[in-house]
């Protein structure tokens, strides 16, 4: 077992205006497993990913990484996230001022890896993702597909235990979306990483080992 | 990612600095404008501090260079530049008889007016015995005056009024020929001119002396000698440094306050520029900071970006300002030498520290903003 959420609920606001985004969700992600979380817009997918990634504190319930409880108020939380969780975002979220190589080596540098080694490892994974000739490019000159591959490289470069991908194909055309999801799931399995892909696109089910559905904050088929 | 053997704590901070540089320079045009604005603020602070230093050094330059251990003047007079002193006639012969005194040079100082082509120019006339202490100590062009119709002018006064060696000038009704130009004799706008003592006395209309510059035997006690001189009628003695200090006090009473106000205004302008540039650079990259937080950057890395931005802006702006100040000083020395700015390395160092401290204050708002950045922003499309 790698990541486990137990009876997680998140409520935004108070009193009559309170909105329950996620309600009593329990979910387990095993190492090397690719899980697809399907749900329409506003169903609570992103809130759940935020909680699982340690970015948002649940109103109730707990999240464990192996046996360690994830607590967003814990001062060591950023370090825990840096070393154990990789994010892939819908809008890529590459830093525009940095080159492709620096974007990908960033998590390593933040973890304290010396520049030469960080660059070597970043270049290696970019080579694997077919971006070996784009190391010095800035994100604004890349295509959408290339940007998402850089984003995947950044998520994977630190060899995290868990990969959380939020709508990774939503900003891409069909061909680039398939390519990105193929790379993401392939590398996750290869690295024995637990991978949760959050999407509204049912066609991605074929890439997963298990499909969960969420609607109005409630999980079905966990 | 398990901790690796080659990890080092400086790597995240170095990354923060790198991000700071890239954030600030991402838009080259704005970067040029930001650093130019910071450069101009630095230029003004440096230039005005340099003026302040020049006022200090130039005011005391004469007394700093005069070869005297003790200066004797009229009782009650404690300065060189402002009081009109007269040493009683009968006292002068007694001065050379004071034990341990090995040499005396009598000088007469008069506040007068030099005219050339109808333009009156206020000057500080120093009459001294040629070949004895009390005259110009650095001749930039020409030579010292020897005969009674010769004069040496301060170089900046001469340059600013197109007067050269060989030209004729009139001082207090005396027609004199300029035989030399002296350096370092513009005492904060008080221009020294040097004439033989007899010429100065002729201008004063009396054979009077204002100061006597005494040299003592090597190792002699200045205090003991001064005590003996102070017993003489109508005079008292001071060390040259004491006289210089008194001059400086009076000069600074007029110069310091306005200079300090200008410097303070420049610093306020500087902090406003830094505040705007640093806050804008931070807010504009809010999403980048959210990404950094989401992937696991500690707050100290984000803080390093904000502080790094202040460092980068300060260093670049200051170096630019220093270079521009150097050019401005050169321009003043070439075209308007009546005022100077002496930007010594210690002034540059102190002003850099001051501007850096002020700019670091400007980081407070960006840091507060960074605290509030929500990493969940990364999920917004």
List the topology elements:
The complex is a heterodimer of chains A (222) and B (381).
Chain A: E1 3-12, E2 19-29, E3 34-38, H1 45-52, E4 60-65, E5 68-69, H2 77-84, E6 85-88, H3 100-110, H4 115-128, H5 144-156, E7 162-166, H6 174-190, E8 194-199, E9 210-215, E10 218-220
Parallel strand pairs in A: 3-8, 3-9, 6-7, 7-8
Antiparallel strand pairs in A: 1-2, 1-4, 4-5, 9-10
Helix pairs in contact in A: 3-4, 3-5, 5-6
Chain B: H1 10-25, H2 28-59, H3 61-65, E1 70-74, H4 91-97, E2 101-116, E3 119-128, E4 139-142, E5 150-154, H5 155-160, E6 168-171, E7 174-182, E8 186-187, E9 190-196, H6 197-204, E10 211-216, H7 222-230, E11 235-238, H8 240-284, H9 286-295, H10 299-335, H11 345-361, H12 364-372
Parallel strand pairs in B: 3-9, 5-7
Antiparallel strand pairs in B: 1-10, 1-11, 2-3, 2-6, 2-10, 4-7, 5-9, 6-7, 8-9
Structure description:
Chain A is an alpha/beta fold and 222 residues long. Chain A has helices at 45-52, 77-84, 100-110, 115-128, 144-156, 174-190, and strands at 3-12, 19-29, 34-38, 60-65, 68-69, 85-88, 162-166, 194-199, 210-215, 218-220. Chain A contains six helices and ten strands. Chain B has 381 residues and is of the alpha+beta class. Chain B has two domains: 5-59 and 251-379, no CATH class; 70-238, no CATH class. Chain B has helices at residues 10-25, 28-59, 61-65, 91-97, 155-160, 197-204, 222-230, 240-284, 286-295, 299-335, 345-361, 364-372; strands spanning 70-74, 101-116, 119-128, 139-142, 150-154, 168-171, 174-182, 186-187, 190-196, 211-216, 235-238. In chain B, helix 2 (28-59) runs antiparallel to helix 8 (240-284). Chain B is elongated and about 95 Å long. The mean pLDDT of chain B is 91. At the A-B interface, helix 1, helix 2, helix 3 and helix 4 of A face helix 1 and helix 9 of B.
